[in-house]
Specification:
It is a single chain. The chain is of the alpha/beta class. It is 45% helix and 22% strand. The strands form two sheets. An eight-stranded mixed β-sheet has the order 4-3-5-10-6-9-7-8, with helices on both faces. The protein has a two-stranded antiparallel ribbon with strand order 1-2.
Length: 299
């Protein structure tokens, strides 16, 4: 990686802000000569002029404009990451997970987690997986459904299987699954992460492939549609635990293990002790969930 003298970059930004060597020197508490020499050193390294000097003052050249945008973006990102890290309090843990998983599974369990770990402050984020690589600073870990990339180089902690299940509103007529699928609308979710849910479940249960007739923007909306009796929905078990326990939804057919949920440690320098305790608590909660699942499946 070829980098210019890093100490020249804030000086360059200040000069561009004022379009004046003297005003930049005043802002940075440096001499006029030091600021001028810094700009010269940067231009020599880059092999081009970044600013033109004339009787009307200073103006950015075309390379200077492009370089300024890149420098401001880079320094801004470094500043934001620094602020996030410096503003963290002892015992704080930052966890990222999918919005629906946060809403339907983790947030209902937050009171129990806070009671078990009163000295740990868990902060939740809901960045999409493809955004995480650019926003990793400040995050301790992410809860992902077990595709390793782009996190394969980070430590992984297993949580529980990611099960796909077919659900319907309570009171749905009892009949062979093939017949029910033949005349009941199917509910789908318009999200790339959900587009394989129906095909995966149908194939594993030996049913003919079909496209959902009713489409919704998010899983919570699709779940509400299923509760209202608008059709059948293939969704993830962790999304509908409360509805199944309350009897608002019933499970049909066989569940399909599509992947595995894992906690990925993203913090540089290793996982902190508070984060390790959160991982252990979540693993215990997932283990209890697996025991209940096994009991329900054996009935």
């Amino acid at each position: 990686m070829s980098l210019p003298p890093l100490k020249t970059l804030p000086v360059f930004v200040s000069i561009c802000r004022h379009l004046s060597i003297s005003q930049a020197a005043d802002e940075l508490c440096l001499t006029h000569s030091a600021v001028s020499q810094s700009l010269k050193s940067l231009e020599t390294f880059l092999g081009c002029r970044l600013l033109e000097r004339n009787t009307r003052g200073m103006q950015l050249t075309e390379p200077g404009r492009h370089f300024l945008m890149a420098v401001e973006e880079g320094l801004g990102a470094i500043g934001s990451a620094t602020q996030r890290i410096m503003s963290r309090v002892e015992g704080e843990v930052r966890l990222n997970l999918a919005p629906t998983l946060a809403l339907r599974w983790l947030i209902p369990r937050m009171p129990a987690l806070q009671a078990a770990l009163p000295d740990v402050g868990l902060q939740l984020g809901t960045y999409r997986r493809d955004e995480l690589t650019g926003r990793r600073a400040g995050l301790d870990m992410a809860l992902v459904s077990a595709e390793p990339n782009p996190f394969e180089r980070y430590p992984h902690y297993p949580l529980c299987p990611d099960r796909l299940i077919l659900v319907a509103a309570r009171g749905t007529r009892s009949e062979p699954l093939g017949q029910l699928l033949g005349h009941t609308p199917c509910i789908g979710v318009q999200d790339p992460l959900r587009e394989r849910d129906w095909p995966t479940w149908l194939a594993a249960n030996g049913q003919a492939q079909r496209d959902p007739e009713l489409m919704f923007k998010s899983s919570p909306l699709a779940i509400q549609a299923a509760i209202a009796g608008l059709g059948l929905l293939v969704t993830h078990h962790l999304f509908v635990i409360e509805e199944l326990q309350a009897g608002l939804l019933v499970k049909l057919g066989e569940s399909v293990v599509a992947a595995e949920y894992r906690l990925v440690a993203l913090a540089p320098g290793g996982i902190s002790e508070p984060a390790r305790r959160v991982i252990q608590w979540l693993q215990q909660e997932a283990a209890a969930l697996e025991c209940r699942w096994a009991e329900e499946e054996s009935v």
